[in-house]
Write a structure and sequence with these properties.
Radius of gyration: 18 Å
Shape: elongated
Strand content: under 5%
């Protein structure tokens, strides 16, 4: 994870490769917490500290607070999901961008552990992933901006907005349909997200005139 800033937690620095250590510590805590999330269990900082054999102060010094830890865990699953979506995206130019976002949205919607987390902690999860309360949204915007820039430089992609603005708008569209059950009470729908992104980028959709 390259998006690490000076004020990041010790965990973020170790995940970014800027503060590595062979001793058990932040990465051990991260691995244990990540396993809990991926198996549909709740991360409790008191229980996590006890399992690691440290006090809560040490755990917080390692990984930050619970929200910071959850963001790192969720990003550790989202980032490779995005890379895989980009890798398998067909086409070039705007079509490739649409395909990548479509694949990413579908994979997120179908991630069982993520559905469980959203159901158990909807407000917290939504806040951490879609606002400045966490680094998640900023990181995802950066990844999409990178894809847009690559397509501009390689295949002449033209955009109606600057890359940074377009990336943010594409993320917001994806979020709208991933979290549509929490926002407006409708079933998450990757196909509608794909159609919306296609319209924005000028990619004709099947059945459109």
């Amino acid at each position: 994870m390259a998006d690490v800033e000076g004020g990041a937690t010790k965990l973020a620095r170790e995940l970014g490769g800027t503060d590595s250590t062979e001793k058990p510590g932040p990465l051990t805590a991260f691995a244990l917490a990540r396993r809990l999330v991926l198996t549909g269990q709740r991360v409790d900082m008191k229980n996590l500290a006890a399992e690691l054999g440290v006090d809560r102060a040490t755990l917080f010094r390692w990984v930050g607070n619970r929200d910071q830890l959850l963001v790192e865990i969720l990003w550790s699953t989202a980032e490779p999901t995005w890379r895989h979506a980009v890798h398998r995206a067909d086409g070039t130019n705007a079509a490739r961008v649409v395909a990548a976002i479509d694949g990413f949205v579908r994979d997120v919607i179908n991630a069982e552990f993520f559905v469980v987390l959203l159901r158990r902690e909807p407000e917290r999860t939504l806040r951490l992933l879609t606002t400045k309360a966490g680094e998640f949204q900023r990181r995802l915007c950066a990844r999409i901006a990178r894809l847009l820039t690559d397509e501009q430089e390689t295949n002449g992609l033209t955009l109606p907005l600057p890359v940074r603005d377009m990336a943010y708008l594409l993320v917001r569209i994806a979020e709208s349909f991933i979290y549509s059950d929490l926002i407006i009470g409708e079933t998450p729908d990757a196909a509608r997200a794909k159609a919306a992104v296609g319209v924005l980028l000028g990619v004709p959709q099947p059945g459109s005139s």
